[in-house]
Design brief:
Layout (H helix, E strand, L loop, with lengths): L20 H15 L5 E5 L1 H12 L6 E5 L6 H4 L3
Helix pairs in contact: 1-2
Length: 82
């Protein structure tokens, strides 16, 4: 699965809230569950790396690996609830 500009695809998913990494991660987890993806390996650059880090933190037993490219670390503001 390849996703570009992750938060922007959420405008039709939940019209009542601003798009966020947490909404996107929840959406990706649902997709993985429905299509039978187990232990995905994430390759993330920039914001994609942030998504990979947050997904790994939220679902640590469901991730097969993580590769980060030009990605910053997470902080409290990144992890805030939508």
């Amino acid at each position: 699965m390849v996703v570009d500009k992750s938060p922007t695809i959420f405008t039709s998913f939940n019209q009542t809230e601003e798009p966020s990494f947490l909404n996107f991660i929840y959406f990706v987890n649902i997709i993985f569950d429905r299509i039978g993806v187990t232990q995905p390996i994430f390759v993330g650059a920039s914001d994609g790396g942030m998504v990979a880090q947050i997904y790994t933190q939220k679902y640590p037993k469901e991730v097969g690996g993580i590769i980060l490219i030009s990605t910053g670390g997470m902080d409290a503001a990144t992890l805030k609830k939508p």
